[in-house]
Amino acid sequence: MFLTIVIPTYNRAHLIEHTLKSVLNQSCDDFEVIIIDDGSTDNTEEIIQSYLSEKVQYHRIPNSERGAARNRGTELAKGDYINWFDSDDEMLPNHVASAKELAAKQPEVLNLMYRIKDSVSGKITPVQASYSEGQKQRKNFLIEGNYLACNPVIVRRDIALQNPFIEDRSLSASEDYELWLRLLAKYRFHQSNEITSFLIQHDERSVNTMTNPDKLETRFLTFLKYIDENQELTTFLGNDYAYFVMRNYLILAVDLAYNGHKRKGFFYLKKAFKEHKSAIKQRVFWATLKHLVF
Fold first, then answer.
1. In order of start, what are the domains of the chain with their CATH numbers?
2. Does residue 31 sit in helix, strand or coil?
3. 0.90 exceeded by pTM
4. What digits encode the pLDDT tens for the residues 1-10?
5. How is 173-225 classified by DSSP, letter by letter?
């Protein structure tokens, strides 16, 4: 079997049916689906009953966050490659076929293209998710921020098993970014420019609902802690490490400022500038100032 599509879900009964229909509407059927219910308290299990088959499995675990749910699905997978697909997004019919074509030479990590679709207006927005080959360009691919999502990244099963998601609740919403960096330090990402999925933008997305200043701060600082403690990653980032830290402080600062936490926003704006003076040249620096002033 070529692909295992692991779908972690938590209280997405009103959204997961659309996702499942899109996943099962593939032009290539060389895949299985493993749904990992991360302790939902809604009627998720009831909703998906009619979709279960030899091709679609359902497993329920105690609530453990997405990293643990994805790892559990990976352990159960039979496919040669693993795709962690979010339960509120949309897979286009060419997704599996495009991945299989790209995997013909047995690369380690595949990177397909995706777009962002607004759930209300239907407006489709492109994403900066391409890069050039070469060591320097590979680092720059993710040094500005996490331009990837789980949906377009497909990892060879043995590599996925050797490099699990970190199961730390404090890292929630950044656990995928940490893994992409870890994989990028070890393996080549083989890219296709074909668009194969939509990330659906809606108000319930975790990155939109995480507005508590302490949780925002903990998430970013935990992420940077894991990066700093990984010698392979800090070596990989090399001279760009300070710039990378600065970018994360800026993103934290603008998130805090946007959500009205101006004192902490200003604190991390200053930390970003101290970390790397080029912070003042970043658009997000001035966006943060705008939210702090007005």
1. 3-206 (3.90.550.10), 210-293 (no CATH)
2. strand
3. yes
4. 999 999 999 9
5. TTHHHHHHHHHHTTSPEEEEEEEEEEEEE-TTSHHHH---HHHHHHHHHHHHH
